[in-house]
Amino acid sequence: MKKFFLYTGAFMFGTIAFAQSNDSNVDQNGNANMATVSQVGSGNESNIYQSGGDADENTNHEATVSQEGSANLSDINQTEDDHIANVEQFGSNNYSDIDQSGSSNDADVYQEGVSNNSTISQIGDAGDTEPNNEAEVDQLGGVNNAFVYQGVGPNGEPIGATLNDATIMQEGNFNYAYIDQMGNNNDADITQWGDDNDAYQIQDGNSNDADIIQGEALTGWASSQSSLAQQEQYGDDNTAKITQRGNGHTALQAQYGEGNEVIAYQGNDDNFSRQYQDGNGNYANTQQYFSSNDSFQEQIGDNNWATTRQTGEGFNFSTIAQYGDANYTLHTQKGLNNGASTTQYGDGHTSNISQIGNNNSADVYQSSVIFPGPGIPGTGGPTTGSSM
C-alpha cells in the first residue's frame, strides 16, 4: 500500500499572495511505502525516493519531511527493506541529506536555525537483531555541520555495518561534528553546547564506544567555545571519552587494539591533551582543571596504566611514555609552570610524580630492556633497570 500526503502553498486572508513556490518530488517503487511532506514557507524543496519493499516486512520505508522556513532542501533516498526517516527544518537555508541502503536503518534529523547542514548515510544488514544502524542529529543554532556515516562508503569503503548507533546534538552556532563508523555494534555520541566547536569520531572495528561532550550549557563556565576533540578507534571493545568545558581546548585520542580505555577532561581554557594507545587492555586518563596545561601520554604494549592530573594554576607540562606491559605511572601537578616526564621501557615499572608548588621539574627513566648500540661495556646499551 502506498500512502503520501503533500502540502505546499501560501494563503493569506483577504488577498492571495503568490510567493516563490515550494517543490516536492516523491518517487516510490514497490510495496507498503509511505511519504509525508509539509512545506509552509517558500522556496523549499523536498525529494523522496523509496524503492523495494515487501508487504510482509516490519515497516517498508516511511519518510516524513516538514519544512517551515524558506530555501530549505531535504533529500531522502531509501532502498530495499524497513527504513524510516524523519526530517524537520524550521529555519531557512538548511540542508538535510539521508541515504539509507540495506535493512532496518533509522534516521532522525531536526534543524531549527539558518544554514545548518546534515548528512546521514547508513549501509548495512540487520543481522540477527533489528533494527541495525540508527542515527539522530539535532541542531538548534545556525551554520552547524553534522555528518554521520555508518558503513561507510561510497568511496570511503569498507561497506557494511550492523547494529551501529550515532547521535549528534549541537546547540549553538558554527559547530562541526563528524562520526564515521565501520564494523559491528559500535556506538558514538557527540554533544556540543556553545559555538565554534569541532568534534571528530572514527571507529573501525567491533563493539567500540566513543563519547564527546563539549559543554553542558550555551553560555558560562559550563559551555564550550572554539574547542577541538578528535577520537579514533581501530580494533574491538575500545572505550574513549572527551569532556570539555571552557574555551580553546584541544584533545586528541587514538586507540589501536582491543579493550583499551582512554579518558580526557578539560576545564577552564586553552588546555592540550594527546593520548595514544597501541595494544590491549591499556588505560589512560588526563584531567586538566585549570588553564594552559599540556599533557602527552603514549602507551605501546598491553595492560599499561597512565594518569595525569593537572589541578594547579596552569602552564604545567606532563609527558608519559610506556613501551612494554603492565607499567604504572601517575603524574599530579598542582601549581604553576611545573614539568614532569616519565619514560618506561619493558614490563612492570612503577612511577609516581607529585608536584605541589611552582617551577618544579622531574624526569624519570625506567628500563628493563637491553638496547643494541653503544653503552656500558658488556651490555650493548643503557644499564638495566636504570632510573634518573
Polypeptide structure, described:
There is one protein chain. This protein is an all-beta fold and 388 residues long. The protein has strands spanning 3-8, 23-30, 34-39, 45-52, 63-67, 73-80, 84-89, 95-102, 106-111, 117-124, 135-139, 145-150, 161-162, 165-171, 176-184, 187-195, 198-206, 209-214, 224-225, 228-236, 239-244, 246-247, 250-258, 261-266, 272-280, 283-288, 294-302, 305-310, 317-323, 328-336, 339-345, 350-358, 361-367. The chain is elongated and about 70 Å long. The termini are far apart. The model is unreliable at 1-19 and 375-388 (pLDDT under 50).
Give the integer mean of the pLDDT values: 85
Oligomer: single chain
Give start-end ranges of low-pLDDT stretches.
Answer: 1-19, 375-388
Number of strands: 33
Helix content: under 10%
Strand content: over 45%
InterPro entries: Curlin_rpt (IPR009742)
Family: Belongs to the CsgA/CsgB family.
Protein name: Curlin associated repeat-containing protein
Keywords: Signal
Write a concise keyword list for the protein shown above.
388 residues, disordered C terminus, 16-stranded parallel sheet, mainly beta, 0% helix
Condensed summary:
With 388 residues, this protein is mainly beta.
Set down the secondary structure blueprint.
Elements: E1 3-8, E2 23-30, E3 34-39, E4 45-52, E5 63-67, E6 73-80, E7 84-89, E8 95-102, E9 106-111, E10 117-124, E11 135-139, E12 145-150, E13 161-162, E14 165-171, E15 176-184, E16 187-195, E17 198-206, E18 209-214, E19 224-225, E20 228-236, E21 239-244, E22 246-247, E23 250-258, E24 261-266, E25 272-280, E26 283-288, E27 294-302, E28 305-310, E29 317-323, E30 328-336, E31 339-345, E32 350-358, E33 361-367
Parallel strand pairs: 1-3, 2-4, 3-5, 4-6, 5-7, 6-8, 7-9, 8-10, 9-11, 10-12, 11-14, 12-15, 13-15, 14-16, 15-17, 16-18, 16-19, 17-20, 18-21, 19-22, 20-23, 21-24, 23-25, 24-26, 25-27, 26-28, 27-29, 28-30, 29-31, 30-32, 31-33
